[in-house]
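Hi U.,

Before I forget, here's the chain from the pilot set. I'm dumping it here mostly so it's searchable later in email.
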Amino acid sequence: MSALHQKPDSIDFPQVEPFLYDTVTFKYNNAVMKGQYTVKNQRTYGISKVKVLSVKSSFTDDEMNLVISNNFPKLFSSGNYRSNMTLGQFKIEAKGQFNVSLYDVTAKWTIKGKLQKIDGEDYMVINTFDVLPEARDMKIAATGIFPSEELSN
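Structure:
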């Protein structure tokens, strides 16, 4: 991954440092949280420092299953957000800027794919990519959570 720190000229693969997200929306509907929040102009640093701890795989003629455990020493992400959700009985409608620092992040990726024929060619298409992360420490800062500027700072 360190070779992908910048976009390599030799392959058609995006750079991972920083990893850029224009817009992504997360939707929740469970006992604790309901609603959604949207993140825009997100930049994430530290992905190129990943250490792969283990890879378990199984393949058939038409299916692929991978479980990859890895560690990121530090991840830092910043961008803009907008939320419209309830957390328990509290309604949160907010927008602003955020940054998140994560330290010693261990993650398990579960990737499943199926063989599909596209334009007469066989491709292994990823159908699910689940991520289960755990961080030793995390620091979050965000503006605009409370309507009062004094409370937000």
